[in-house]
Design goal:
The chain is mainly α. It has one domain. The chain has helices at 2-16, 19-25, 31-52, 64-87, 90-97, 100-107, 118-135, 147-169, 177-196, 205-232, 235-241, 244-255, 263-279, 281-295. Helix 3 (31-52) crosses helix 10 (205-232) and helix 6 packs antiparallel against helix 7 (118-135).
Length: 296
C-alpha cells in the first residue's frame, strides 16, 4: 500500500515537470490570471466526480483547520512564488524556492511513525545540489536589493513543505477536498489578478491548449496525486524524489528546443537520480526482500 501511494505521489512530480514548458507555451498571460484559470480547470475532475456521486459531498465537510491548511498551501505557495519572481532574479529565487523537498525530508522526522535516516538527508542534499546546477547556469549572485524576493522565495519553500507535512497528519481526510482547495485558490487568484494585473488572453489555439494542459495536469491532477501520495506513501522518498521535477523540466525544455544540452545537465542528472535512489533505499531493499521471499 505504501509503495503504491509513493508511486502515485511521484506522478505529481512527473506532471510538475511539464509546468515550465506549458507555462512558456501559454503566451503572455499574467501569473495570477493564469493561476485563476488553471486552478478552475483543475477543479473540474473533482466537480464531475462529485456530480456523479453526490454522496461524496459529505466528504467536503471538514474542520476549518483543514481548509486553512489546504487553501494556504495552494494559494500561499503560488502567491509567494510569483512575488519572489517579481522581486528577485529568477535563478536565485528558483533555487531558494526549491528548498521545499529538503524541508519535507527533514521535517518528516517530526511525523508520527517516521524516522529520519542519514541517507534521507544525504539524498535530499544531493538533489538540492543537482537543482543548483540546473538553475545556476549563469551563476548565482545574491543582490541586497532583492531581499523581498529572496524572503518570499524562502517562505514559498516553507509554505509548500509545511502544507505537505501537515497534510500527512490529516491522512483520514479524503482527497476529494482538494477540489475545494483548487476552487478557493482560483477565486483568490482572480481577486489578485483584478487588483494587480491587466488581462491578457491567449493569442491562438496552441496557447489555449497549453493553458488547458496546465489546468488538467501540473495545476490540476498533480495536486490530487500529491495529496494521496503524502497521505499514503513514503513522504521522505517523495521529498527527495521531488528534485526530479526541475531536472525533468529542464530535459523537456531541451527536447523542445527551449534550452541547450550541456555537461551541467548531465551532472545534475547524476546528483538528482543518485539522491533519489539513496533516499529510497528502504523501499528498494524492502521490495527485493519481498521478491526473494516470494521466490523461496
Amino acid at each position: 500500500m505504501k509503495v503504491k501511494g509513493t508511486l502515485i505521489g511521484f506522478t505529481a512530480i512527473l506532471m510538475w515537470s511539464l509546468l515550465a514548458l506549458m507555462t512558456t507555451a501559454s503566451g503572455l498571460m499574467p501569473p495570477f490570471q493564469l493561476s485563476a484559470i488553471t486552478f478552475a480547470i483543475g477543479s473540474l475532475p473533482g466537480l464531475l466526480l462529485l456530480a456523479a456521486r453526490p454522496q461524496r459531498l459529505a466528504l467536503l465537510k471538514q474542520p476549518a483547520k483543514v481548509w486553512l491548511i489546504g487553501i494556504g498551501g495552494l494559494f500561499g505557495y503560488h502567491f509567494l512564488y510569483f512575488t519572489a519572481l517579481r522581486n528577485a532574479p529568477a535563478v536565485e529565487a528558483g533555487l531558494i524556492a526549491y528548498l521545499w523537498p529538503l524541508f519535507i525530508v527533514v521535517g518528516s522526522a517530526l511525523l508520527p511513525g517516521e524516522r529520519l535516516r542519514w541517507y534521507h538527508l544525504a539524498g535530499a542534499l544531493a538533489g538540492l545540489a543537482g537543482t543548483a546546477a540546473i538553475v545556476s547556469r549563469s551563476g548565482i549572485s545574491f543582490d541586497s536589493g532583492s531581499l523581498l524576493g529572496y524572503g518570499a522565495a524562502f517562505l514559498c519553500a516553507f509554505t509548500w513543505s509545511g502544507y505537505s507535512l501537515l497534510t500527512r497528519r490529516f491522512e483520514a481526510v479524503s482527497t476529494d477536498v482538494v477540489t475545494g482547495f483548487c476552487l478557493a485558490t482560483s477565486v483568490l487568484s482572480l481577486i489578485c489578478h483584478l487588483g494587480l494585473e491587466a488581462t491578457v488572453w491567449p493569442a491562438n489555439g496552441t496557447e489555449w491548449l497549453a493553458v488547458v494542459g496546465l489546468g488538467l495536469l501540473p495545476v490540476g491532477a498533480a495536486f490530487y496525486a500529491w495529496d494521496h501520495g503524502v497521505k499514503n506513501g513514503d513522504i521522505q522518498i517523495l521529498g527527495a524524489a521531488s528534485y526530479a521535477a526541475p531536472l525533468l523540466s529542464t530535459l523537456i525544455l531541451t527536447l523542445f528546443g527551449f534550452a541547450e544540452p550541456s555537461l551541467r545537465i548531465g551532472l545534475a542528472c547524476l546528483l538528482i537520480t543518485g539522491g533519489a535512489v539513496l533516499a529510497a533505499r528502504d523501499m528498494i531493499f524492502r521490495s527485493r526482500t519481498r521478491t526473494s521471499a516470494a521466490a523461496e
